[in-house]
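Entry for the shared binder. Reason: the reviewer on the internal report wants the predicted structure included alongside the sequence.
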Amino acid sequence: MRMNHANQKPMSNAMRKMLASILLFLAHHPSRGERVTLEYTAQASTVTGQPFGMTVPRLTVVKGYMTYETNTPDLRPADVMRGEFVMLGTWDFRAEFLGKVIRGSGTAASATNLFGSPTLRFDDGDNSPKAGIMSFDGAPDETIGLGFSISGQAKDLPTDQLPVRFTFNPPPEGASHTFVLKNQAGSMLLQFTSFRQIDLKIISIRRIGDQAEITWASSEGKRYGLEFSQDLQNWTRIRSDLIGAALQSTVIDPLATRYPSGIPSKGFYRIIDLPI
């Protein structure tokens, strides 16, 4: 790793030794793989009424993400062709359109079905009695419902468990699908135009004076945390309030402030995915 010394004053030997130790400190630990974040774009193909009190023109672009945990227990363990899951407080969903934002309840129902074309389904809000209450621009609305269903090939859903790698393709190349957002005022049937799985990873770490700058792959509006460890076993939460930007985000760790008695000689960072 090279350090950029542009516009910096000459450093003493003691400072150079400290910065050398920071180079050892700025490693990172691979993220855990049980949380999957899928970023999507879609278009409103059919609109009925005035959903969410708005006039939504046809082909309105909707973008956002959804997150699920692959280690969510299967409620039908004896059935190898169908899975049923309830994500209690681990589900995350966001849809943004016309300057407004719909958020998931945090709890959603999911199902897999391997009969015929393998199908993956998620239901939130009013679309499932097992889900919580979704929100529109921060205001809870118990009439909001989400229904997400997409069918693919055997490679997309090789077992009845929630997929670790999301390989479903949107139409026209992909198979049948539905994506519905609704409330008591109307509904939107959406057509997916793209999917992208966000791999939670640190892109770069660099030193700026006595601070560390950490950049990671992120999804817009998603909440993240930053953790630190000296042994890869015991982790300390540094931040829990990081809100992601599109594609990538950056956070500054004030090393000298956190360690006034001396910056550790080695350590590790990791970014974690947190429910909103």
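Summary line for the report: The first strand starts at residue 27 and ends at 28.
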